[in-house]
Amino acid sequence: MYAVEAQGLGKQFGSFSALRDCDLALPANKVIGLVGPNGAGKTTLLQLAAGLRYPTSGTIAVLGESPSANDPALLARMSFVGQERPLYGDFSVADNLEVARRLNLHWDHAYAIARVRRFGIPLDAKVRGLSTGQRAQVALAIAIGKRPELLLLDEPVANLDPLARVDMLEELMTTVAASGPTLIMSANALADVDRVCEYIVILTSGRVRLAGEIDEITAGHAFISGPRAEGIPAGWSVVDGREADRHGAWVLRADGARAPIEPRDNGTIARSATLEEIVLAYLRSAATEAGS
Amino acid sequence: MTWLVWRQHRYELLGLALGGILIALALVFGVAFATATREQLGVDRCQPEMVPVQTFFVVVDGRWVLVSDPERRLEAPRFPSNANCVALAVEAGNRVQPFRWLLVALFFVPAFTGAFVGGPLFSREFERGTLRFAWAQGVTRMRWSAAKLGALLLAGLLGALAVLLVGSPARAINGSGPNAYANFDIEGPAFVSYVLFAIALCAFVGTMSRRIITGVFVGLLLFGAARLGVMYELRPIFQPPVTVVYAANEVDRWTRFTMPEGAWDFGIDFVDHEGQQVSSARVNQVLRSEPQSPPGEMARDDRKVLAANDVFQRVRYQPADRYDLFQWIEATIFVVLSGVLVAGTLLLLRKRDA
Prior knowledge:
heterodimer, A: Rossmann fold, six-stranded mixed sheet, 34% helix, B: alpha+beta, two-stranded antiparallel sheet, 11 helices, 8 strands
């Protein structure tokens, strides 16, 4: 069973397509990163999965069921935390936890309380008065307290300072490793995803550009730079390249069974591409496509 | 959900229920105070005073002579004047004025209750994003929205029922006699239905627009439009009004019509023999074109002049005994509308994106 499976999934807002023709099969029990620029459709995809929005075309299944059915059994199996970390601002932290305790089928109250305490957040403080980081931690404690099979986090580290970012991610990974839900998180910064994710989805302008295991993706792409005259090696195609007068640098994708790239003696560099190079290449090629 | 609804809306819930009870208590006190005041001043026992007239005729040497006697030195005839009773009634009215204002305010209570309780109910959740928190928990949208709206409607119902219980005796505050129709909008099942309708309407508008300010103010506006529309366009014709037309052969200037006690009087207008309404311009034209009586004779009878021109006076009214029926018809209209709006709100919340 896939954590999230989409076929021809699309979402229109008026005349604007936030997501279109999206085919995805995201495996369970992985840490999955959604990467893309602002407005790429990451939030829309997560909200569709959480059942907060309804698709305008295609289908989406979460843990094998349709989130649009608004079925409490499915709601109990997944957690979603939006980018703005929605909580009742005029309730105390304890009251927000109480809401979750009363509305959910499964709920680990002791864990949620302990987790909030561990971050030094006073239970009787009003949520409105918390810092961004504390608020994020409360929202996360509630999401994990549900003991979900699937954890959907929209930009979990957005607006956090660099140190809090790293802490949050490490902490999150420890939790995921311990309790083992599938985690799907979106991120603006590739570095956040690179650090923790095993599987990546690249989205630009509402389309899925690439989806796969990070190991397989890096193995299936190469970076070369050298004289343009040399041409592109057989069995590879260009994702994106930078070309000057006579020299160029390209990120290549293997077509089918990948042919080994031999280092050449004319000053050409050929190596496997880093994840960052690959992601940037896809983002750039999408931008060029949109620009042309 | 009960806990969440209470935690989130306790002030609105208490305000609705206790507000209604407080208004009811104030009305009960107002009635007692008004009754005591009238009793103390003797308003209802008041007999018209016999007042000496200042200008009168006396017979002097077998001739009538007009006498003006402001200093009242002569034995003047006396005539009944109820000025003393009017003064007492005015004094009583002044003393109960705060409670009269309460009755006036009661007219606007459903509108503002609905706007400030119903308007933000769901729109605030949209604006603050809190429904994305609630809907990510294990509660269906339907249960969540039905619990919230249901609780507020129930509290509104309780408050309005408290007002209903003391409603019709409260007419005594105005001392407006037996005419119930004057208090139609602030008592009875109709008043209860306005409260429910206002909450349901503003909740719907708020959900539709997702904006608190729209829910409150557009909701208020639409509520006013619906209320006034029913009040002016439908209520007068819930049943065909009783119509009295002065037929051609029986009218003269002396014919008097006595409005039955407690009736809702629609006033006088003009019709032709087919019952079609005649404009006042036409009436004026007829009266101008027909010759006046010659000087020295009795003035012409305008009714006869009009009847000769196929124009007849008409009086229309709703009798007092239809009052309860009208209350229930009006209440049914607004309760049904509320039901439709509640269903619409729940459906919108079920079908729309968060």
